[in-house]
Amino acid sequence: MTDHFPLHVDIEPRFRDTDAMGHVNNAVYVTYLEVARQEYWRRFWTTGYSTVPFVMARIELDLRSPVKLGEVVRVELRTDWISRSSFGMSYRLTEVKSGRLVADAKTVAVTFDYETETSMPVPDEIRQHFVEIEGRELPGKPR
Predict the structure, then answer these.
(1) Which stretches of the chain score pLDDT less than 70?
(2) Per-residue DSSP letter, 137
(3) CA-to-CA distance for 130 and 46, rounded, in angstroms?
(4) Which residues span the domain enclosing 63?
(5) How many whole angstroms separate alpha carbon 12 and alpha carbon 111?
(6) Distance between CA atoms of 40 and 52, rounded to whole angstroms?
């Protein structure tokens, strides 16, 4: 797998992101992944975020070091693979100033038809946009 991440977003944690121990709460990292995915999607999806045709099916998050107020988290992401009706993404979260690894994560999204409430094939247009953003052909889902 490549170590290249074609997009990153810097996030400065807010006070409300922290827990009683003074560092970013573990649940907040899922929101940080979402913020980065939203930026990725905006690169090619112009009809509005409310019409994005996918739902999250899996989120895997490994926390490596705590983040405190005043630190900035860089969330990098890439699409790793694409199948008939799903795609997988990887994320690397680091603290900007030190470069310290904060977390890494993986998600699986399923393309979804909200009208029929069923999964659907990944549209060819979306497949092509992923390839353009990634700068490479994407393999199928790993076994």
Answers:
(1) 1-2, 48-50
(2) P
(3) 15
(4) 7-134
(5) 30
(6) 12
